[in-house]
Amino acid sequence: xxxxxxxxxxxxxxxxxxxxxxxxxxxxxxxxxxxxxxxxxxxxxxxxxxxxxxxxxxxxxxxxxxxxxxxxxxxxxxxxxxxxxxxxxxxxxxxxxxxxxxxxxxxxxxxxxxxxxxxxxxxxxxxxxxxxxxxxxxxxxxxxxxxxxxxxxxxxxxxxxxxxxxxxxxxxxxxxxxxxxxxxxxxxxxxxxxxxxxxxxxxxxxxxxxxxxxxxxxxxxxxxxxxxxxxxxxxxxxxxxxxxxxxxxxxxxxxxxxxxxxxxxxxxxxxxxxxxxxxxxxxxxxxxxxxxxxxxxxxxxxxxxxxxxxxxxxxxxxxxxxxxxxxxxxxxxxxxxx
Length: 338
What we know:
Blueprint lengths: L1 H22 L21 H18 L1 H10 L4 E2 L2 E2 L1 E4 L9 E3 L23 H12 L1 E9 L6 E13 L2 E9 L15 H6 L3 H18 L4 H6 L10 E5 L4 E4 L27 H8 L1 E9 L6 E13 L2 E10 L12
Antiparallel strand pairs: 1-2, 3-4, 3-7, 5-6, 6-7, 8-9, 8-12, 10-11, 11-12
């Protein structure tokens, strides 16, 4: 008993000291130096902000010439439409120079001239100068050419003031999202694309764009969402349930007409979730990824399925809309009893 009491006393002392140890200046903490922040990992606006901060620190550590080379050549800093840019910041915006621009290096060093207003009425250089001169860093929302598609698309960029070899400048990066109202294009976000190249990211884009259709058009959207080739192809289909688990519509060929059939998220003990109430989980969290086994309508076989569910409000009532892809991954039985 005395040994147990001594052990408990030591444990409580350690736990009490843990926060202080973690905050001590000598305590090791994760930094940008571990290279976990990279262009490949950028998915959200939070990712963009961390990416820009790490690019800023990289310049301070490695110098301008190495940073210029790395921003152009290293996969850590450049992947598809995600890249680091650096450009001069001056109140004479028509005299702004591009200093680092990986999509088109020929623009670097040249005066960019007066930028025409974009689709939102923004003069990008003026807005950037205003934000950086007042706040030092921040977000800019504008339309710009996506190098991956060649089209002008809504872009959110995070910029931060930096001294670039004696030149007042901005370092930044941005993201083009395909699941916002201004960019849910049917050519890019569709069931065929998800079927051909399934991933959690594409799945979430697909469901979020469908959710916007349901929110804007109400129940009139349920039939197109269940039948239109944009939303239904091969093994990919959408479904909707109310927060009691009742089926509202489904593109599953086995479900019959929209509103018929058993809910995809049924909580029966013999169902795919073994009695777990995943409907309430989706309702509480707003967005959820689910993993279970279901019949693939394209092959007729039972396969592992990854499904994304999003909560929306239609005519004042909450609805869960979802879709999934079949991973084809069949894990071995777990050695753990839980």
